[in-house]
Design goal:
Structural class: alpha+beta
Number of domains: 2
Distance between the termini: 31 Å
Largest sheet: 4 strands, mixed
CATH topology of the largest domain: Glutathione S-transferase Yfyf (Class Pi), Chain A, domain 2
CATH architecture of the largest domain: Up-down Bundle
Number of strands: 4
């Protein structure tokens, strides 16, 4: 049995988790989830019936990990040899931007994509404030940096980078110079290329 069972669909956020698995060098078997007929074992593992869902078959029993940011952080912890964990000096940036991407960035992009407008004077009541403020903040951090924590790639870049990469591809994030340069650095990573090629082949197969 593989170390992990990976429930996913190639046309989903499962692409983030697959990239993280490859960066970690993890041994996994995939279970493709059909939107109309979801496997019972998958729903039992994650009653939200959302992909990605990762089941770690550890020595102490099965552990279920959901939510892409959590999967990225978990794999970094379980596979320290992959070098995805932050140093003490990088720890603040690592957690700050990992959760910033999972919170304000995700909320701001979804809100804009859905056409939801924050009523005037109520920006302080939502976690992201405004779409423009979120993008300006993220751009300000990435401008002049190679990666989220500085010169070194960490698991935070898998999640933050996926948000940027996905946003640029689908137009939900504007092609600002700092975003494009950051995405290009990530796209050159062997683990990114390997993971994306698998999902691209699966998508092509589904569309036949």
């Amino acid at each position: 049995m593989a170390t992990y069972t990976f429930y996913t669909n190639p046309m989903s956020r499962g692409q983030i988790a697959r990239w993280a698995l490859h960066e970690a060098g993890a041994d996994y078997s995939q279970v493709l989830v059909d939107w109309a007929a979801k496997p019972a074992a998958f729903v039992a593992a994650n009653p939200m019936a959302k992909v990605p869902t990762l089941v770690h078959h550890s020595e102490t029993g099965d552990r279920v990990i959901t939510e892409c940011a959590a999967i990225c952080a978990y794999l970094a912890e379980i596979h320290p040899e992959a070098g995805l964990l932050p140093s003490d000096a990088e720890l603040a940036d690592y957690y700050r931007w990992l959760f910033f991407a999972a919170g304000p960035v995700e909320q701001a992009i979804v809100s804009k994509s859905m056409g939801w407008e924050v009523p005037e004077g109520r920006a302080g009541m939502v976690g992201f404030g405004s779409y423009e403020r979120v993008l300006d903040t993220l751009e300000g951090h990435l401008d002049g940096r190679l990666f989220v924590c500085g010169p070194r790639f960490t698991a935070a870049d898998v999640y933050v980078g996926s948000q940027v990469d996905w946003g640029l591809t689908f137009g939900s994030i504007p092609p600002r110079r700092a975003f494009v340069a950051y995405a290009e650095r990530l796209q050159a990573r062997p683990a990114y290329v390997a993971a994306k090629s698998i999902d691209a082949a699966l998508i092509a197969e589904q569309q036949k």
